[in-house]
Amino acid sequence: MSITVSNISKSYKSVKALENISFNVKEGELFGLIGPDGAGKTTLFRILTTLLIANEGSATVAGFDVVSDYKKIRNSVGYMPGKFSLYQDLTVEENLNFFATIFGTTIEENYDLIKEIYVQLEPFKDRRAGKLSGGMKQKLALCCALIHKPKVLFLDEPTTGVDPVSRKEFWEMLKRLQQKNITILVSTPYMDEAALCDRIALIQDGEILQIDTPQEIVKHYPKQIYNVRANNMYQLISALNAYEFNHSVYPFGEFVHYTDKRTDFNPEDLKVYLEAKNLSNIHIDKTVATIEDTFMELAK
Amino acid sequence: MKRFIGFIKKEFYHIFRDRRSLFILFGMPIAQIMLFGFAITNEINNVDIAILDHSKDTTTEEIINKISASKYFSINQFIERESDIETIFKKGKVKAVLNFEKDFSKNLIKDNKATVQIITDATDPNTANTISNYVNAILQQYQKELNKDITITYQIIPQTRMVYNPELKSVYMFVPGVMTIILMLVSAMMTSISITREKELGTMEILLVSPIKPIQVIIGKVFPYIFLSIINAIVIVVLSIFIFKMPVQGSLFLLGFESVLFIITSLALGILISTISATQQTAMMISLMGLMLPVILLSGFIFPISSMPLPLQVISNIIPAKWFIIIIKGIMLKGVGIQFIWKETLILVGMTIFFIGLSVKKYKIRLE
């Protein structure tokens, strides 16, 4: 096991940030922590990177205890905090050189690990880090976290505030890093990114709702979901919310994801109801659950 | 060691890329020393005074001539009536009025005694005091000349001699003070800001999750400022020697050693400040309010410690700047060696060890 977390609880004064969290991450696994802002993801990262001490429970990273062996962990993990935390007044190359030096290595030594990312940064290597675009900043931060060839990589919301193209590229890189047998723990508030992980933990209000592969999590969704569409989105949502048999109503892009309380639900009934509410162009189709649907269902 | 050098290199990048701070770093000592040296001064020059001469005889004329011949005073006008004194002060034209009594000469010969009243405008007490001292000095000088050939009088004339700074040049007093302020400010404020900046930007989080040791971070932060502060100290000493002709009586080597000691004391204070403040702004406020004010008010730089109320005198003992000012005044003005200032030096060493110990203990290896 690369990371083991057992019964971790942590509170700040009166606020409970984490409650009885347990999970394991296997070696070489890409493990995702999926949850909204304030779910406790950053606190968990800080406990695992030895920056905070949990009130209860224990955890190990790369076989070392996060409290007693914290120095060994600091030698062997890479950490990319949620906030961009490089030196803005240093250039790309100087930042990378600095982090290589304090980890006792050089850029050349581990160049193969960061090569694919760094080639994109190379044209800007004399530019100050503070003047890079959001996506570039994250790539540089990833390079800096990787430069000493860590056994475990902690990425706290690496794609927040990054454009969709860069986000996609970033995840492709993570997949490639995984091939090099680096364990990756990544957190994200984006449900679409969850599907790219080997396993995910859905977390909310400091508690884990479910841990499984993205496929299994979706498979266990208890109800049939329908895509509902009509001419007026706003009216549609209020009509569905007012419908006495509704189980859940969530806007989902151009559709509304709808589930019904009844087991013998007939979409035609709903159509009649909606037409009575002056809606037209009504389409109701079966669809498969996404991780977001599962999350919403679990978080209910 | 390679780590450490890499860290120091990074610190120098920070310092040299932040042009504004760099400007403050080197512009401030020069500006301050010029300000204190030229503008803020206790000396008096060409002070306007008025004369009210009731006797108008040869003696008063001689005295008046002596006074107007000195470079300290220029006689603005002669007035005729006592009532004019108030008017002329109110107009603010003169700082002092000399009021010679009637029959000045006659009284002097008859009773060996004559009176002249020195009335000064004490809205500015320091100047008033100085003026009256200077007039007294001129009068005494004149008295001595009068008594030259006569041996009958048994007079006890106090002779005050100002040693070490015979001309009472205020710059001699300000240079040690300014040097203290600048070294303190640069060392303590700059280090505390640069450490808290890492906290604020989140880079401290990454530094913590790395093999670099806390002590390496601290020394790496402090090292560039030792270097810059030494340059500042040299600039101040060179400026005061060449522009203000301030003598350095004692050994330059000892002065250098004591300055480095004080720089380290201030840096230790800076580290301590950074361990208790979370943001750059807090660090700056604590440095300014907690360090600058005591240094200016309680170190004996401007106000003599001996004339403070007892509680403040006691408090002044815990201010490192007080001891440093005693040390450098001793070296620069009196030319003393280590045998006269070892006690103060030891106190500074003790304070430094205390501050460093406390900050190492308070330095957080985690976020909370």
Q: Can you walk me through this structure?
A:
The complex is a heterodimer of chains A (300) and B (368). The mean pLDDT of chain A is 91. Chain A is built from 11 helices and 14 strands. Chain A is of the alpha/beta class and 300 residues long. Helix content of chain A is 35%, strand content 28%. The two termini of chain A are 32 Å apart. Chain B has 2 domains: 233 residues, no CATH class; 101 residues, 3-Layer(aba) Sandwich (abc type-2 transporter like fold). Chain B has 14 helices and 4 strands. Chain B has a 4-stranded mixed β-sheet with strand order 2-1-3-4, with helices on both faces. In chain B, strand 1, helix 3 and strand 2 form a beta-alpha-beta unit. The model of chain B has no long low-confidence stretch (mean pLDDT 84). The interface between A and B is medium-sized, with 30 and 26 residues.
Tell me about the largest β-sheet of chain A: 6 strands, mixed
* Largest interface chains and counts: A-B, 30 and 26 residues
Summed up, the helix count of chain B is 14
Q: Mean pLDDT of chain A, rounded to whole units? A: 91
Number of domains of chain A: 2
Coarse shape of chain B: elongated
In short:
The complex is a heterodimer of chains A (300) and B (368). In chain A, 35% of the residues lie in helices and 28% in strands.
Fold topology:
The complex is a heterodimer of chains A (300) and B (368).
Chain A: E1 3-12, E2 15-25, E3 30-34, H1 41-48, E4 56-61, E5 64-65, H2 70-76, E6 77-80, H3 92-102, H4 111-121, H5 134-146, E7 152-156, H6 164-179, E8 183-188, H7 191-194, E9 199-204, E10 207-212, H8 214-219, E11 225-229, H9 233-242, E12 246-252, E13 255-260, H10 267-276, E14 283-287, H11 291-299
Parallel strand pairs in A: 3-8, 3-9, 6-7, 7-8
Antiparallel strand pairs in A: 1-2, 1-4, 4-5, 9-10, 11-13, 11-14, 12-13
Helix pairs in contact in A: 3-5, 4-5
Chain B: H1 2-17, H2 19-39, E1 47-53, H3 58-69, E2 73-79, H4 82-91, E3 96-100, H5 104-111, E4 116-120, H6 125-147, H7 170-201, H8 203-208, H9 214-242, H10 252-276, H11 280-298, H12 310-316, H13 320-334, H14 338-362
Parallel strand pairs in B: 1-2, 1-3
Antiparallel strand pairs in B: 3-4
Helix pairs in contact in B: 1-9, 2-7, 2-9, 7-9, 7-10, 7-11, 7-13, 9-10, 10-13, 10-14, 13-14
